[in-house]
Predict the structure.
Amino acid sequence: MEWIEWFGEHFIGMFDAGGEQFMNLFTGIVPTLVVLLTFTYAMIKFIGEERVTKAIQFASKFMVLRYTLMPILSILLLTNPMAYTFGRFVEERQKPAFFDSLVSFLHPVTSIFPYANAGELFVYLGIANGLIQAGYGTAELAVRFFLVGIVVIFLRGVITERITYYLANKM
């Protein structure tokens, strides 16, 4: 009968640990995320939704902007998963490439803007925690992670667009 007692203690202990983790998040990162989201939506209202829409439509005409600025803005302004709606501004044949570049930026964006894809924050925090334990700072890592992410999304967007065009022309 000891196993029943052991099971009861450890079963409820699992929920106690989950509750403790939840409170750590709620008193730690959640207020920051709420303030960042509020700032982002306030900026959209200040600039005006029509102006933001026109700027995105303009950006979609140029490959460099389509696979750098557009994914970045869509993630920062709309967050994951609403960011995918920016795909409506690109041509049908460019949608797979835009989606590829957007999805590829969901992890790097969390280094500086954790609210944009909070569900994947554990990836960056795991790496950052290792650096902190080793005695290093995380600011340089965050900036490098973000900048390398921009290069990667551009390359993925261009390559995927070329592959899509090739396959579409072959059919």
